[in-house]
Amino acid sequence: MSAAPPLLCDQVRTKGLFAYVFLAIWLNVPIGCEVLPMQASTKNIPHQVFVDWLIQTSSPTALAANISEYCIHHTQYYLTALDRRQSWAVNMYESSGRLAEQLLHTDSQNVHHSSGLFDECLSIQPEDVPFQGQYCTVFFENESIQEHENDHHYRSQAIPETSKTAVCKEGEPKEHKSNFLMPSVGFCLPSTCSASDLRSAVAQMVGKQLINKTNFTTAVITNENYCYSQEKINTNRLRHDKLAMTVMTVFCILIALVLTATVHDSWSGASSSSSDVAQQTFHIKLLHCFSAKRNCQMLFSTKDDVKDSLACLHGIRVVTTCWIVLIHVAGEFSQRMSYTKQLDIKNASRWEFQIFTNGLFAVDTFFLMSGLLVAFTQMRQLDQHGGFFNIKRFYIRRFVRLTPVYASVQLFIATLWSHVGTGPDWNYVQQMSKSVRQNLWAHMLYINNYVAAIDQQSSLSNPLTGMIEAWYLACEMQMFWMSPLFVYPLWRWRKAGLIWTIACFLFFLGFCMALFIAYDIPPTVLFSRPSAMQKLDEYCRKHYHQTIARIPPYVMGILLGWLLHKNKDRKIHINKFLVIAGWVAALLIGLLVIYGMMPYLDEAKIPVINSFVRISYGAFHRSSWAVVVAWLIFSCTHGYGGYIHAFLSSKFFLPLSRLSYAVYLVHFAYIKAYVSHMRKPMYVAEYYFFTTYLGILMAAFMLSSVVSVIMEMPFMNLDKLLFPNGLEIKKTKKEDVTGLLTKNKCH
């Protein structure tokens, strides 16, 4: 056979790398040990050198120096098997990503991921080979030499001249954020190669680079937590975690109790009518609190049995919940595991996407409704009890209503969550689970928004922040603790209470404005402005998670609840022109809140946001949105909502509205697990994104229905059974008397 012609770079552009490796093997080309420098041109290179480059880009330990003896020996074993075209070696080669030089020339707006085949790599377990397939991810970060000469987080390592590479700094693992925000390559290696071996091998390949005449080094970041083998996954089993086993046992007991109650409820043939329920013994009533049959009937009922209910709130609650899930899905997909980060940033500036790229004020809808319901229901209780405010019962009932299901979700995340899947980024889930376990006490005391703020490394992308969305539950509970300071004065002393509440509202707004003046934080989360994103964590600590800064919409809800309670038995008549003016004003204010930052999204055109715009928008846009929602609720309640009221008051929303709290608790953990489980990053396109979003939304509601039936509703039933209010007692007595008279009449 004649000598093989050289393989040229132009040919490489049109052919697959994998084909050229086996072309060289078929031609009996030896695999040498000469290193191809990353900066060199590949034109007219002898084909054996080019084959070396192909192998090295998919298996860096093949030609590396200064790595462990086992790693070198087993890598050579793998290359020999690849030369013989053994199936397991071919699978290992196919399971690796490719290290391209241009990967290092990407900026923060172009994060490239070259992923391998995760499951195929872990399935490599040949019987005659002393190692398994191991999938490891390497991350890259360009660091200026001048910036980090004295940084103890980085250490320089001199590479021998024989490797023909320059000095390269090796970064320590970054546990304070998701590493997949940086460029990455996934390699399939022998399980005897450590993360340190891989880091050293890749560092020798990368060397020193020069971009735009700026001297910098490429930090090669690896971590044993981002190296996975089947044996390693098997050793991380549930039985080795005592707390996880304890939690699972408790969950199993609870499920057994639910099944027992459901079977008894079904076989007893008892009717759900109030008369039959009243004749049951206390122990039977206690057991039936956990009946899935009864709880499902209550959950999916389209009958609203609450007197003076504000029907439009159900639709607003469901729409806002879907909106928040949309925002979180968009944020996770664009910030982590995405090939198209630059396109994602560009899309953040499009007007049609502002509803979720600039939609974080949606949560203020919940703050407004929470304040409204607290004031409306508690003032009704004050009317019924002649002004007696049972402060002890007020707080206990709230804690019992929210905490059991919240604690169950927290315990699941802290113990069982990390065992339900695998993936290249599953370490993010494991770190998040660990953080939730460590800070469980703060969540149960509802002070986690301030505990997390103490850690200056806390970040929205930090897995150690734990259950990120739980800040809302802490803020809302702390607002609830303060609510009697406004509700009772408004009920007892209307004018004085009104003046006091409005004065406090203005004080809270002033405090919020002072935060933006003192700390120079951005007006909101602006994904397309790099300078604003650099201050994102400071923005969250100083404003977004601060209860006093977020309480104005809650106080507005209390005022609205007082107004609706005061006029609950009569309709407020408003001139139709004023109604039209109110709707137009609400529409304009809503558009201003959504699109108010549009002129400032492109930092290249407007490098600095005007201080007046930054402070006024940052301090007032959330309260302005609360005004829009308040007008919507007021109009629908007093007959000025038209078709909007008919839509929001639809009985279709009733079951979904009951699930909104559970959806909020479970959806973000599901999104995190979904992204961390992904074997490859995604190309975020409109059709793919919305299809995936709808699937996640449906899954969130399905999971929430299970959580609600097993955890949330049983404890709500227990609360009503053990601590009935005055109306329930009177209703029960009346039903007992009616049942007795009916029985006597029959006799």
Automatic annotation (TrEMBL):
<feature type="transmembrane region" description="Helical">
    <location>
        <begin position="355"/>
        <end position="378"/>
    </location>
</feature>
<dbReference type="Pfam" id="PF20146">
    <property type="entry name" value="NRF"/>
</dbReference>
<feature type="transmembrane region" description="Helical">
    <location>
        <begin position="659"/>
        <end position="675"/>
    </location>
</feature>
<protein>
    <recommendedName>
        <fullName>Nose resistant-to-fluoxetine protein N-terminal domain-containing protein</fullName>
    </recommendedName>
</protein>
<dbReference type="InterPro" id="IPR002656">
    <property type="entry name" value="Acyl_transf_3_dom"/>
</dbReference>
<dbReference type="GO" id="GO:0016747">
    <property type="term" value="F:acyltransferase activity, transferring groups other than amino-acyl groups"/>
</dbReference>
<dbReference type="InterPro" id="IPR006621">
    <property type="entry name" value="Nose-resist-to-fluoxetine_N"/>
</dbReference>
<feature type="transmembrane region" description="Helical">
    <location>
        <begin position="625"/>
        <end position="647"/>
    </location>
</feature>
<feature type="domain" description="Nose resistant-to-fluoxetine protein N-terminal">
    <location>
        <begin position="68"/>
        <end position="229"/>
    </location>
</feature>
<feature type="transmembrane region" description="Helical">
    <location>
        <begin position="687"/>
        <end position="711"/>
    </location>
</feature>
<dbReference type="InterPro" id="IPR052728">
    <property type="entry name" value="O2_lipid_transport_reg"/>
</dbReference>
<keyword id="KW-0812">Transmembrane</keyword>
<feature type="transmembrane region" description="Helical">
    <location>
        <begin position="498"/>
        <end position="519"/>
    </location>
</feature>
<feature type="transmembrane region" description="Helical">
    <location>
        <begin position="547"/>
        <end position="565"/>
    </location>
</feature>
<keyword id="KW-1133">Transmembrane helix</keyword>
<keyword id="KW-0472">Membrane</keyword>
<feature type="transmembrane region" description="Helical">
    <location>
        <begin position="577"/>
        <end position="598"/>
    </location>
</feature>
<feature type="transmembrane region" description="Helical">
    <location>
        <begin position="470"/>
        <end position="491"/>
    </location>
</feature>
<dbReference type="Pfam" id="PF01757">
    <property type="entry name" value="Acyl_transf_3"/>
</dbReference>
<feature type="transmembrane region" description="Helical">
    <location>
        <begin position="399"/>
        <end position="420"/>
    </location>
</feature>
<feature type="transmembrane region" description="Helical">
    <location>
        <begin position="17"/>
        <end position="36"/>
    </location>
</feature>
<feature type="transmembrane region" description="Helical">
    <location>
        <begin position="243"/>
        <end position="263"/>
    </location>
</feature>
